[in-house]
Amino acid sequence: MSHAMQHYPAAWGHYDVCKSQIYTEEGLAWDYMACQPEANDMTKYLRVALDPPNITCGDPPETYCALSDLLLSEQGELDSDIIMRTNRKGKQSNTKHNEYLIPSSGINNENPYMCNNECDATTKELAHPPELMFDFEGRNPTTFWQSSSWKKYPKPLQVNLTLSWNKTIELTDDIVLTFESGRPEQMVLEKSLDYGRTWTPYQFYATDCLDAFTMEPKTANDLTQRTLLDIICTEDYSRGYVWKNDKTVRFEIKDRFALFAGPRLHNMASLYGQLDTTKNLRDFFTITDLRIKLLKPATGATMVDENNLSRYFYAISDIKVQGRDATVEAVTRKKGGVRHSEPANRVPSSREKPRCKCNLHANSCVFDKGKLGCECEHNTTGPDCSRCKRHYHGRAWSVGSYLPIPKGTANICIPSNHGPEPRVCDNAMLRCQNGGSCHHHQRCHCSPGFTGVLCERARCQGPGECDDQLTAP
């Protein structure tokens, strides 16, 4: 079953300004707004750990088998919808093109594999270390991490890949894994919100969900607003060996956003409203760590060939994790005055942009001494801006709010040594006028066309139309 890809806008929100100066009757003042970083690739800032730690191929060196290339037309598509599959007895049968690989010409029909590939950790050109999952894509030949092969069959070949940020981040786009070895027949994606102390599943993947996990197969398209947080098992991404467009395994973030924001994410007000009012929903898209549990390698939907176990392994060329981002002030290394990008697990250049969860109290992060941290505004502090600064406990800390769109509500921390802050508005004597609404007794949200502390004045439409025209100095 193929997965129909939805096309969504690259950015799904703004809130990039934390405060701006405005003119009031009392003079120049600060207008505070909810703010957050923009989205970018978060794999630049992670640490990766493998379990078992010696599972990477090449120590000792080994030879492995890789499937031969598909017979593709010049347009990059299969010449036929039918692929000839070779069974273990050497006979051929017709089978659907999304299940099996076609043997290339010149390859023995009983073994459509090339078994002259080497993995050697001591030779750069033949090594496949974990950092190759996060390097620049587009190289030829493709670079990838690879596990050792299934030499200990029937003992399971299982690998845990743990990605850690040492920081809470909010996911804004699909998680995408690209495999070079055929997609796993069984896999689990897990998340942690407490830096890897506890784990919960995000999604299960299998060629047969009932057999592998006793779960009915579903897809992201089967989810509704009421079931969005359900953990499902999908068979969409485990269909053996196929051509290059089917190398990926996805966890669909934007399809879930679309349940509230519409098919093309045009109704962001609805999504922001849900994120504001439903903590479980916001937490669902928040992580500190991801764990990829590879439970069974691709076998081509055939019986495991115990005489040729070097054909079974895991190989991943790319992992994409998209999250919130901001301009980074990072510790950098310079050579001759030129900034150089760093490899995975190293300090990134200042032009790269991480996304932190900052509780809508910051629009930028810093990457320093191997850690991400928010540059907090609104008199807040902490790695996630999750508490008020000293002497600013005039009211309890609160997360910022996306509403009302487009500026949201900052919920700033106020001084604690000046007594109660005077009310600007209320629902009794200091009512906001002309359809305005009072927020936290500190500000009137005015209707379009009106301004003033209590929305009592018509907004000027042009020079000369009213005496209190506000102009920049």
Characteristic terms for this protein:
single chain, 473 residues, mainly beta, Jelly Rolls, 6-stranded mixed sheet, 4-stranded antiparallel sheet, 6% helix, 27% strand, elongated, disordered N terminus, disordered C terminus, EGF-like domain, laminin egf-like domain, signal, disulfide bond, Laminin/Netrin_ECM
Describe the structure.
The chain has 473 residues and is mainly beta. The protein has helices spanning 209-213, 254-261, 268-277, 279-284; strands at residues 19-24, 27-32, 38-41, 47-51, 62-67, 82-86, 92-96, 113-119, 145-146, 159-170, 175-179, 186-192, 200-206, 233-234, 248-251, 286-296, 315-320, 322-325, 334-335, 338-339, 365-368, 371-374, 380-381, 387-388, 437-439, 443-445, 450-451, 457-458. The chain has a domain at 38-325: Galactose-binding domain-like (Jelly Rolls, Sandwich). The strands form eleven sheets. Strands 4-10-16-12-13-14 form a six-stranded mixed β-sheet. It has a four-stranded antiparallel β-sheet with strand order 9-17-11-15, with no helix packed on it. Helix 2 packs across helix 3. The longest helix is centred in the middle third of the chain and has 10 residues, at 268-277. The protein is elongated. 36% of the residues are buried. Mean pLDDT is 77; it is low at 1-13, 69-110, 325-354 and 462-473. It comes from Liparis tanakae (Tanaka's snailfish). Residues 31-324 form the Laminin N-terminal domain. Pfam families: EGF_LMN_ATRN, Laminin_N. One of its GO terms (biological process) is tissue development.
